Amino acid sequence: MAYVAGIDLGAGATKTVIIDDEGVVRGRGMARTRADFEVVAGRSLDAACEEAGIRRDEIDYIASTGLGRYSLASRDIQITDLTCGARGAHALFPETQFVLDMGAQCTRAIALRDGGKVKTFRTNEKCAAGSGGFLERICRYLEVQLDQIGDLSLEAKDPQPISSVCAVLAESEIINHVSEGKTVADIICGAHESLAARALSQLRMVGFTGAVVFIGGVALQQGMVVACRNQFGGEVQIPANPAHVVAYGAAILGLQRFEKRALAGVSRA
Question: Is the CATH number of domain 3-82+245-263 3.30.70.420?
Answer without folding.
Answer: no
